[in-house]
Design goal:
This protein is of the alpha+beta class. It has three helices and 13 strands; from the N terminus they run βαββββαββββββαββ. The structure holds 2-oxoglutaric acid and fe (ii) ion (FE2).
């Protein structure tokens, strides 16, 4: 429900993106390889639409998801695929840490979204570093300060791009992928995480 309310913003690339919180690098993966990966990830992933609870009512999460990782150690995860391992190998040196899991998000069109949240589950510790790789439709990744919602920035996450959410981001900032009024094609996002 909250995801429906006034979230049709189409923000662009903010100036002065706080580099202590976020680092954006387009072109981590080239267009041709990215196109192939996008098609394969959409086709081969056993996507699920989970339920989320809000105000005591259950809603279907407005996107599809799937977890992969060190399945022999972490319950509920599928084992790494060669493709996901290859992407992990690219992002780990850029993040400066190792990851044992990745959450895949599939935004089928502009109507799919993720509402304002921070990724601070206790299983990741309070200052997690998260590496994010995007394929497909360009979507705006918005961040806002928890104490002052007027303090906000946006990054347009392009096909094949890399975004590093640094350790300070989750504690004092929230992020989202807003819905779009423009018709949009599919997007798949991978967020590599260290679950402890
Ligand atoms: O799709 C994205 O770029 C962000 C996804 C996200 O915030 C998450 O999986 O926690
Ligand atoms: Fe997130």
């Amino acid at each position: 429900m909250m995801e429906q309310l006034g979230l049709f913003a189409e923000a662009g690339q903010s100036k002065g993106l706080p580099v202590d919180l976020l680092e954006y690098r387009p072109g981590l993966i080239g267009v041709t390889e990215g196109d192939a990966l996008l098609a394969r990830l959409i086709r081969d992933t056993p996507w699920r639409q989970t339920k989320q609870k809000m105000w005591d009512k259950e809603y279907l999460t407005p996107r599809l998801t799937c977890w992969y990782g060190d399945a022999e150690r972490i319950a509920g995860m599928l084992p790494w695929t060669p493709e996901l391992l290859a992407i992990r190998k690219l992002v780990e040196p850029m993040a400066g840490i190792g990851f044992n899991s990745v959450l895949l998000n599939y935004y089928r069109d502009g109507n799919d979204s993720v509402a304002w949240h921070s990724d601070k589950e206790s299983i990741m510790g309070s200052q997690p570093v998260i590496a994010s790789v995007s394929f497909g439709a360009v979507r705006s990744f918005d961040i806002r300060n928890k104490a002052d919602h007027a303090l906000r920035y946006s990054v347009r996450l392009e096909h094949g791009s890399f975004l590093l959410m640094k350790s300070g981001l989750q504690e004092h900032w929230e992020h989202r992928i807003a819905k779009s009024v423009k018709p949009l094609k599919a997007r798949v996002n991978l967020t590599f995480r260290l679950v402890i």
